[in-house]
Structures are given as C-alpha cells and as structure tokens.
Amino acid sequence: xxxxxxxxxxxxxxxxxxxxxxxxxxxxxxxxxxxxxxxxxxxxxxxxxxxxxxxxxxxxxxxxxxxxxxxxxxxxxxxxxxxxxxxxxxxxxxxxxxxxxxxxxxxxxxxxxxxxxxxxxxxxxxxxxxxxxxxxxxxxxxxxx
Length: 145
What we know:
By secondary structure, the protein is an all-alpha fold. It has one domain (3-144). 72% of the residues lie in helices and 0% in strands. The chain has 6 helices and no strands. The longest helix has 27 residues, at 79-105. The protein is globular and about 45 Å long.
C-alpha cells in the first residue's frame, strides 16, 4: 500500500476521533489537538500534491488555511459566512468520511497508485474548489470583518 495514503488514513482517524471527543464535551489538551491537526495537514497536503502532480487536481490548496477558515468564531450564525462556509464544511466532511470508510475497509481494498482512488480524488477536488470560493470571503481577519 502507498505510504502517503496509509499515513493519511491514520492521521485522519485520530484527528476525527479527537474532534468527536471535543464535540461530545470531553476535555482534551490543546497540544494534543494541535499535534493531531498538524499530522493530518501534513499527510493531506502530501496526498493533494500527488493528486495535483499525477491526478486531476488543478486548484490551489492550503489545507491548514482551510481548517483555519472553518474555525472562524460563530460562522454558523453569520449569514454570509454560513452561505459560503457550510458547503466547505460539507465537502471537508465528505473527504473525512471517505477516508474513514477506506480505512475501515483496509489498505488492501485501496488502489496502490494513489490517483487511481478516484472517489477520494473527486471528493478532494470538490473540496478544493469549494475552498477556493470560501477563501474569497473568509481567508483572513480583514475579509471576515
């Protein structure tokens, strides 16, 4: 199995679980959340690079910036942010769910050549397209003001 994809499986699984714990009200140390996010970003960036270099991904991507936009305080209750960020949240959740499903099925059910995992690549492409739109309205404090 391709190492970048199995690394992404593991970091996605851990990052998903810690975010799920936080949603359920569990107290988790900030350093642990930050470390798992950094690993997820690093592994997702590598897979996105492979999709760009050998697959169909044409849009620019910055997964850390994307996650930072989704951390905008109270965006769900601010109408313009909700309009642009909710589709990004959904696309991101679709990628996360796909990775969780692929991890659950096991590495032997995935394609060795990463860009041949077309379902994942198509979801990542859709996420990056939506991220590009969302960055126009909320990529930094000045735009969010």
